[in-house]
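Tutorial handout. Part one gives the primary structure; part two gives the three-dimensional structure as tokens.
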Amino acid sequence: MLRLLLLCIAASCCTGYGINRFKPVIWSKYSFQGKPVFFGLIRENETVVHFDPPLTAHDKDDIGFGQFVCAYHIHRSNPRFRKTIFPFEIVVVDKLIGLAVIRVKTGAAVSAKNKTYFKFAVSARDCGSPARVSDKAHVLIKVVSANDSVSFVRETYLAYVEEGHSPEAILTILPSDVERAVAFNSTCGYEILTPHVPFRLTLQGVLHNTEPLNHLLAKEYFFGVVAKNCRGDHSKPIFVKVVVTAKRNSSHAMASTAMDSGLMDHHLLGDAPELAQASNAHKVKLMMTVTVVTLGTIAVVVIVLLIIFKNRFSKSNYSDVYYDEEAIDLEWDNSTFDLLAPYAKRPRIV
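Part two.
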């Protein structure tokens, strides 16, 4: 009798019976009323629905068949649609992580003209005996025309990001159609053309940095982005510029705090190591021609600058300062970060 009992226990362990303690759990980064939500997209000429994130479920059981996910069930709550032909089915492709794909049934088809959206619920069932079923999750699938092409609200995007932040959402690339600017749109993904930049794009067009940015390593990033449809075709590229600003308490951010509000941070020539005291500074407006040499490229720029001089032209030493009426060629001292006038054209002191 004892031997028979041991055989029954061994058989139950081998089949997974009696050790299935947990039910599967479906998780998504989107939720509605406390339930996970999945947004899918499929074109008329395709058979597999594209999801971001993918449909997955996990089970806390660590032994027996209860740790695997065997199947998903589709729940259609509206009685009107229960008798209609439903074109989708769910196939599990990885039982350990519960990864599944939703595809069009053999012989069925989807059409954007006939039905644009499909809304239903799904639940996951593990492989234990008896099996356990997860709570329901919502699935929303949009059908788009195979001839749809993607256009954008604008061709360039600009964003300012303070250095040192953990990966976060920076901006959203919006298609020109307002309807497509919601959680999912008629694209099947985005691709950054410039390699080795610390950014990524989600299916919804949200740009994230993949690592904390450093103002000293790179003050700005400029890269191209294309949208991809589900067939792999690419749209016309658009361009994104991300300016990395210094933290407000850092030394290379001091110059911007003392300058006039009319000058933006990224217009400063160099990172000033120190500033003159406000009580000893004189504000002088100059019209000048400045020659700047940067990476072998010479650009002549005519600008109006508001310059804060150190206490060099104190009223106790000079009565007035006059400059020649002709344009003054100034030199840039990279070691002291000063603007210097050539000796022949120094100010005349009267």
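Part three, for discussion. The mean pLDDT is 71. Residues 289 and 329 are 6 Å apart (CA to CA).
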